[in-house]
Amino acid sequence: MRNALTHLSWEAERQIEHINRPAAEVDELALEFEESFRVAVGMVSEGLLPASLGKLLAPMDDLLSEMARSLGDEWSIDALRQSSVWADLRTLATEALCHLAERDRTGGE
Q: Residue 27: how many CB atoms within 10 A of its CB?
């Protein structure tokens, strides 16, 4: 989860650099998050992660789901740079990373 959040929190140019590999696409950022999100939801429901983290992750999942259903072109390099939705995802990912760092610092309390 931490890697997926880190990649989503990066500025657009760093995200582009990350996905600028053979066979990589913008949607890989979303796919990486989705895989981790499903595991995190299970861990929250089992009490292994705090519910407060789930509350930070759920809006990110909602935004990515909306983007997947959208007729717009949110999955392009230009959108990654200019879209307010991608900017919102970066903000949410940064908040979730800060939450995880605080949890680590306080020993998971």
A: 15
Residues 6+ apart with CB under 8 A from 58: none
Query: Structurally, how many domains does the chain consist of?
Result: 1
CB 7 within 8 A of CB 32: yes
> What gap in Å lies between CA 78 and CA 27, rounded to an integer?
13
> Which residue carries 């929190």 as its tokens?
9
Determine the structural domain holding residue 46 and report its residue range.
2-105
pTM over 0.90: no
Confidence band, pLDDT 50/70/90 cuts, at residue 108:
low
Report pLDDT digits (tens) over 71-103.
888 898 999 999 999 999 999 999 999 998 888
